Q: What sequence folds into this?
């Protein structure tokens, strides 16, 4: 059971990095702080601690997925980027007379 207005913390360690979220329950709403984002979620059938843990785990997975995609795009664009002095300069067309 949860106690209202009592601030609690959830910690998940992933690949040696510790991620922490703090939360409290107020008037049937879980108020959780993940990094700098504050989330409000109604208390459901699941314990608030498990709810915040699931929110934190989802945030960690999303960050890992975005990082992986960023790395893939960075390496793909580096392979196809023009060699030499970089991108060609765009020259505006002169109006026909």
A:
């Amino acid at each position: 059971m949860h106690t209202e207005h009592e601030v609690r913390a959830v910690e998940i360690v992933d690949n040696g990095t510790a991620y922490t979220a703090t939360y409290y329950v107020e008037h049937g709403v879980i108020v959780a702080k993940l990094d700098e984002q504050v989330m409000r979620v109604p208390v459901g059938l699941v314990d608030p601690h498990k709810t915040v843990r699931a929110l934190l785990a989802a945030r960690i997975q999303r960050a890992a997925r975005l990082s992986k995609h960023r790395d893939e795009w960075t390496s793909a664009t580096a392979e196809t980027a023009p060699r030499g002095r970089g991108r060609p300069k765009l020259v505006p067309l002169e109006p026909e007379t």
